[in-house]
Specification:
heterodimer; A: mainly alpha; extended; B: mainly alpha; 2 domains; three-stranded antiparallel beta sheet; 3 helices; 3 strands; 47% helix
Amino acid sequence: MRLESSRLLAATLVLATGSAFAQSEPVLDIDPARHGNLAAAQQLVRGAYDKLGEAQYANHDELGGHAARAKELLRQASEEIKAAAIAANHR
Amino acid sequence: MKLDLSRLAASGLLFVAAAAIAQEPVQNIDPARHGNLASAQGMVREAYDRMSDAQIANRDQLGGHAARAKELMREANDEIKLAAIVANGGVAPVLPLTVAPAGVTYVAPTYAIPAPGYVWAYHPRYGWGWHHPAWGWHRGWY
């Protein structure tokens, strides 16, 4: 019983971690052959996001929360770019 | 009278154009001092320009999402700048937060940033000071 509970807990943790990871990083999900500018913009946003991660590491995560806030804004921007591509597909 | 109206229209257009320029993300981090943050700002600016290209290519019919993405990028750009200020120990870096008009000499901040979100900018009447995109000028300038 204890073993099953710990397995359930572990599975829940894995799911939660995966979900958080999936939400926290901007993804590249626009076809560059179809929407060159939007795909490029998304890639650049992802690049900026990664650079901010490096800056956080280099500054021991002591940037007053501004880098984290910028990353969150970029994640939202990436989603809006994807939504723009979908809107363009429906034109 | 006609001349006055055309002048008024021209000045209005200039004001609108100036406001539009002010909305664009600026690159104001010294790359020699903060390589990663400066690179991030550069990429955000490029992404912003790409979104503008996409808007033109799609005749501005992207459901408002491109405009929203650009606004988020501008906000992110400001946050990156604030991160650089914090990395400097709360003192603004040498480079200006906004591009100074032609003929205006940059003056470094004379006091600490009042609150997060302020940017060091040039006021046409009072000179350099802290400006917040939502609250306006610090110290009651208008």
